[in-house]
Specification:
The chain has 442 residues and is α/β, with parallel strands linked by helices. It has 13 helices and 17 strands. The protein has a seven-stranded mixed sheet, covered by helices on one side. Strands 3, 6, 7, 8, 9 and 10 form a six-stranded mixed sheet that branches. A two-stranded antiparallel sheet has the order 4-5. The structure holds beta-D-glucopyranose and calcium ion.
Length: 442
């Protein structure tokens, strides 16, 4: 292991030297600034924009980061360690799904307790909620469903884990995927029931689909609207769609996840709350691990160990799990109490906002895809952050926006990996890592 790391950094050092001879860094930087290829959906090729990938490094040895969708089995959740350790410079960057899920569940529960006098809208002693599920095979989505069910006591255990299947409609409380929970406040016990839940997948196959969630709440509300006291959603994209379609007017709180700008702003208008997954830290880590791989330095540089520009993260905002080769940002609950601090989700995280020196960290080219160009979180929060950090880290990134449905829509646009120095991949489906690594292994 040590030896391979050394070999790799030697290779990067040599590569570094070569690039140094073949073109000045200032020249490269200028050409790039003029190229302006930073828009999702654009399939700009890098070849003609100035920065050239290093021909000496094989594609299979180039730094690779998976982000937002962790290579894993979509039915069992088991991590795909082949993909996660594809080469010595391969990592995953995401957030701590369990810690975040627990926060989301607790946030909903505390809201119910605090508003117990008014929450049961039809006064039947049952606190009814509906749940929007993002993707039944995505481990983060599964964790969030479990987190809500756990906190509200509606979860049923199977094989040591809470069942995360959608219930469809469960207004009568007979579903076998959940149970009725109970909550005791001021000596009075209330039943908590998951009235309905479904995966928000559109007919073309896109998951986490906001429009589908907006339609679902319409359907649910028209048949059992007065029973709905709370709405929980696996993300803000779907949550805001339900809020705008129904919950805002009916004064029913909706709880989401991601802390997108529009959701945080909506807290002032009755949106119940959301969870920040510290996208400002994740976006940094996504590009930072690539930068470190390209520089051939210790992976902890500018992460747990300050770099020469002073960038460093404290351990209250992320954890690194070496066995899983994964960096996980930590989550923070955003509610009426603190939302003022979260109004700009695209602001870089101050402790890692220092520009790297262009002479010692020469410009490199990165291929990066967003699985669905219209995903709210990725397009309105994550990508704008990446676009700020790429400048600070001297990376020229080509952003490729997928259709959210088919992997080939994205892999087709990785036709010539040799044009790039490093890769950042956001898969459509967590099972599909091999479709990408196969291209890099050719
Ligand atoms: C985000 C969702 C997003 C999904 C896409 C999740 O981590 O919270 O909002 O749609 O990733 O994969
Ligand atoms: Ca009720």
């Amino acid at each position: 292991m040590k030896k391979r790391v050394l070999a790799l950094s030697m290779a990067s050092l040599m590569a570094f030297g070569l690039v140094g001879c073949s073109g000045g860094s200032s020249e490269t930087a200028q050409t790039t600034a003029a190229a302006g290829s930073e828009a999702a959906g654009e399939t700009t090729a890098t070849g003609d924009t100035g920065a050239k990938a290093d021909a000496e490094v094989a594609n299979k040895d180039k730094p690779l980061v998976w982000f937002n969708r962790q290579p894993s089995n979509s039915s069992t959740g088991e991590l795909d360690m082949n993909a996660l350790s594809f080469n010595d410079s391969t990592y995953y960057v995401g957030f701590d799904a369990n810690q975040g899920a627990e926060l989301q569940g607790t946030m909903v529960k505390e809201y119910i307790e605090k508003n117990i006098d008014t929450i049961d809208r039809n006064g039947d002693g049952i606190i009814g909620y509906v749940l929007a599920i993002g993707d039944i095979g995505h481990n983060d989505s599964i964790a969030r469903t479990r987190g809500v069910r756990k906190a509200l006591g509606t979860g049923l255990e199977k094989d040591g884990a809470i069942v995360s299947d959608p219930v469809g409609i469960n207004t009568d409380g007979t579903s076998t995927a959940v149970q009725d929970g109970s909550i005791e406040v001021n000596g009075k016990t209330y039943v908590v029931r998951e009235l309905a839940s479904q995966e928000m997948k559109n007919s073309a196959g896109a998951t986490w689909d906001a429009a589908t969630a907006g339609n679902a709440i319409g359907t649910w509300a028209s048949s059992f609207g007065d029973q709905i006291d709370v709405i929980a959603s696996n993300n803000d994209g779907m949550g805001m769609s339900m809020f705008n379609a129904w919950s805002k007017d009916n004064k029913v709180p909706t709880f989401g996840y991601d802390a997108n700008n529009d959701a945080v702003a909506a807290i002032a208008e009755g949106y119940g709350g959301t969870i920040s997954q510290h996208a400002d830290v994740q976006a940094y880590l996504t590009l930072r691990v690539l930068r470190n791989g390209l520089d051939g330095v210790d992976i902890d540089t500018g992460i747990g160990t300050p770099d020469e520009a002073g960038n460093v993260l404290s351990d209250d905002v992320y954890v690194y799990n070496e066995d899983e080769r994964s960096y996980y940002a930590l989550n923070v609950a955003v509610t009426a109490d603190n939302y003022q601090d979260f109004t700009d989700s695209t602001k870089v995280y101050e402790p890692v906002s220092n520009q790297l020196d262009a002479a010692s960290h020469q410009e490199k080219t990165v291929w990066l895809d967003i699985y669905n160009a219209s995903d709210n979180f990725l397009s309105s929060t994550y990508q704008p952050l990446l676009q700020k950090y790429d400048d600070l880290l001297n990376l020229k990134v080509d952003y490729i926006g997928g259709d959210g449905q088919t992997e080939s829509n994205i892999t087709n646009r990785l036709g010539n990996p040799s044009q790039y120095d490093a890769f950042a991949i956001n898969m459509v489906k967590t099972d599909n890592a091999a479709s990408y690594t196969a291209l890099l292994s050719q």
